[in-house]
Amino acid sequence: MSTPAPGLNEVLQRTFAFPKPHFLSVTDLNEVEVANLLDLAESFVALNRQTSKKLDLLAGRTLMNLFFENSTRTQSSFELAGKRLGADVVNMSPRSSSIAKGETLIDTAVTLNAMQPDLLVVRHASSGAASLLSQKVTCSVVNAGDGQHEHPTQALLDALSMRRACGRIAGLKVAICGDIAHSRVARSNIAMLQMLGAEVRLVGPPTLMPSQVDRWNVAVHHDMRKGIAGCDVVMMLRLQLERMDGVMAPSQREYFRFWGLDREKLAHAAPNVKVMHPGPMNRGVEIDSDVADDLTVSLIQDQVEMGVAARMAVLATLAARLDNER
Ligand code: NCD
């Protein structure tokens, strides 16, 4: 690169080797490692806002995106993250419907591994899929969402968005609201936020709470206004109809009345409350457009921007680990 981009030295100083060969779960990291990743991601935020966004930290490396489930934000942000760091990026979206899931996954993993990728980003409808795949390949695996289990890079980008907007994470009161039962975003965020010292509350109808929620060490509220009272961050989740068998699915109008975030309910939160949503949003179901589009409270677009930076930090550190192993 002829003129070093501002922030490049910072990036190089902050890049370290990822502590594990794979990033499968928030529990792969400790508090200090998360803080270091967030600091590194900050320097990618600066880089991504420039005209020239390219670095060569992943030059010569191959990144494969293997998405068995649909994705807009996650897949494109991993693709951009890989390309901005100089990797060759291949996107694959196999259809998993006709073949038994376990077989598809393992066959595909072994086939792809033979092409010598360095990094494999995987999303799959089955909990544990990324971990299973990591045992069958020789490259680094990143979990981009496995069933309702975990979505660790989402938790990282959410932490980055929160830290930028609120100046800290420790001590924040965060309400995660809606369809907790089916949400990998909720599971990863609870683990991440508790590690970073936030107070997490879960808010939603009893039918959309996980059956063993009493073992999760979080306060559970079944009244939206009481649940978000005094909260610094209100994180809304999508009603994940594709994971419901129809029994739990309420009428969407009823759902909005009790659990949809609108101005009136939001007024119960802290005065400087920030609203988050991982997307895709069901407008008028779990969130009112009036709130989602108000940039003075909504971090939803910031979350998308931070997704690229956070994933660059993960890929750069995983690649640094691969470099050390050479
Ligand atoms: C989430 C996911 O796929 O788990 N979305 C995302 O990654 N941006 C949440 C969802 O699908 O509701």
From TrEMBL:
What GO CC annotations are associated with the protein?
A: cytosol
Catalytic activity reads: carbamoyl phosphate + L-aspartate = N-carbamoyl-L-aspartate + phosphate + H(+)
BP terms from Gene Ontology: 'de novo' pyrimidine nucleobase biosynthetic process; 'de novo' UMP biosynthetic process; amino acid metabolic process
Does the keyword Transferase feature in the UniProt annotation? yes
Q: What GO annotations for molecular function exist for this entry?
A: amino acid binding; aspartate carbamoyltransferase activity
Domain named Aspartate/ornithine carbamoyltransferase Asp/Orn-binding: residues: 171-317
- Where along this sequence does the record place binding of carbamoyl phosphate? 73-74, 123, 151, 154, 279-280
Q: Which residues form the Aspartate/ornithine carbamoyltransferase carbamoyl-P binding domain?
A: 22-163
What are the UniProt keywords, alphabetically? Pyrimidine biosynthesis, Transferase
Q: What is its EC number?
A: 2.1.3.2
Pathway assigned to this chain's UniProt record = Pyrimidine metabolism; UMP biosynthesis via de novo pathway; (S)-dihydroorotate from bicarbonate: step 2/3
Q: Which PANTHER family does the annotation name?
A: ASPARTATE CARBAMOYLTRANSFERASE (PTHR45753:SF6), ORNITHINE CARBAMOYLTRANSFERASE, MITOCHONDRIAL (PTHR45753)
Q: Which family does it belong to?
A: Belongs to the aspartate/ornithine carbamoyltransferase superfamily. ATCase family.
Per the entry, what this protein does is: Reversibly catalyzes the transfer of the carbamoyl group from carbamoyl phosphate (CP) to the N(epsilon) atom of ornithine (ORN) to produce L-citrulline. Catalyzes the condensation of carbamoyl phosphate and aspartate to form carbamoyl aspartate and inorganic phosphate, the committed step in the de novo pyrimidine nucleotide biosynthesis pathway.
The name on file for this protein is: Aspartate carbamoyltransferase
Q: What is the lineage of its organism?
A: Bacteria, Pseudomonadati, Pseudomonadota, Alphaproteobacteria, Caulobacterales
